[in-house]
Amino acid sequence: MSDMATYEEKPIINMQNVAVGYDGEDILTNVCLSLSAGSFTFVTGKSGAGKTTLLSMLYLMKKPSKGILNVFGNNINFTNRHNLALLRQKIGVVFQDFRLLDHLSVYDNIALPLRVRGMNEKEISRRVMELLKWIEMHKSVYKPCSTLSGGEKQRVAIARAVINRPDILFADEPTGSVDSEIAEKLMRLFVELNKVGTTVVIATHNEQLTSEYNFQRIELANGTAKLYPALRKI
Fold it and tell me: Which residues of 72-107 are buried (b: 16+ CB within 10 A; e: fewer)?
């Protein structure tokens, strides 16, 4: 069982009486939560409880309909589009539907965030190949993503999200399309990122995953959210 990472007390995400939803109907209401920089958090709840909705707000694609959301110390409701774009550069996201560029190769999909930053190709190649070996995709470097299986696409999506070494990583069901061996490797990657300071938030319905790793957990139910601390080892 993994220990919860040591982290600073300064909140990197803070929600006060937040409501969020679609088409005028709130899915989550009166959410009050605070996540510290460097923490590792699971988001759990039944299908339809609002896990994906919560994440879409936290990775700054949707603003709260009510309440206050602070990310990196910025009140999101009063942050303009330009500054939101700058904040998103510090965030990595693994989407449930992958959102890869299918016409590009595995390599080019993973390299894209680094190219946007203007990193030199030699360093890009080093980082991409290192990650490809870790996720066991190094034999598929130049395959178009359109030819990959669901599990392979999931691994590429995770590599693309972490290649930039983000301050916060959000992952929506990141182990849902892979076998148990690859799932374990991916979790070790998330844990290692967390150990070097990345705040990690993973939405999952996998109870085995949440019980195996000793991290705090947000449980969503009936439109509300409750934060359960990690169990301490005696």
Answer: beeebeebeeeeeeebeeebbbbbbebebeeeebbb
pLDDT one-digit tens code per residue, 8-23: 457 999 999 999 988 7
Assess contact for 22 and 57: CB atoms under 8 A: no
Angstrom distance (rounded) from CA 59 to CA 168: 9
Angstrom distances, CA of residue 219 to CA of 55, 103, 127:
13, 38, 35
Domains of the chain: 1-90+166-229 (3.40.50.300), 100-164 (no CATH)
- For helices 180-195 and 150-162, angle between their N-to-C axes, nearest 10 degrees: 10
pTM assigned to the model: 0.88
CA torsion 161-28-39-9 (nearest 10°) is 130
Q: Could you give the residue ranges of the DSSP H alpha helices within 39-149?
A: 51-58, 81-88, 106-117, 121-134
